[in-house]
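Structure first, sequence second, as always.
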């Protein structure tokens, strides 16, 4: 499920656009009065990287970068992962003990340093492809 952004007009909520990681980062950055360049400096990246994140060109940064963004913007990794659509809107916060013993998470943690940014983006895109294919199949069987 994807977060949805709303605007309020005369006491009525109007859907603006689906919330994405980039939109959430931009929203939080602007709330704090930061430019893309300032945010980039604070997270060890350049303005172009922040721009690509906000436009959705980079859809899932390394977790280290995501954690830096969350820290600087006063939010959590969980909030940003929800905005990215990786966590369902109403999903409970997972028990960290269960997360740490999950063999799939252990696998991805073990290869984190072996892959570059482009590799992680390809992996993310492939996972999104699989998720969309599963959704489409579920819709067809209804």
């Amino acid at each position: 499920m994807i977060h949805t952004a709303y605007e309020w007009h005369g006491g009525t909520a109007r859907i603006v656009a689906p919330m994405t990681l980039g939109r959430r980062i931009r929203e939080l950055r602007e709330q704090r009065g930061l430019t893309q360049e300032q945010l980039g400096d604070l997270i060890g990246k350049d303005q172009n990287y922040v721009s690509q994140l906000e436009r959705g060109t980079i859809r899932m940064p390394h977790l280290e970068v995501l954690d830096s963004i969350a820290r600087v913007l006063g939010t959590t990794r969980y909030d940003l992962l929800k905005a990215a659509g990786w966590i369902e809107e109403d999903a409970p916060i997972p028990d960290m003990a269960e997360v740490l013993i999950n063999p799939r998470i252990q696998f991805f943690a073990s290869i984190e340093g072996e892959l570059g940014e482009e590799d992680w983006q390809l992996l993310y895109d492939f996972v999104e492809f699989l998720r969309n294919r599963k959704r489409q199949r579920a819709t067809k069987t209804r």
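Margin note: Helices lie at 21-31, 36-43, 47-55, 63-73, 77-83, 96-101, 103-111, 117-140.
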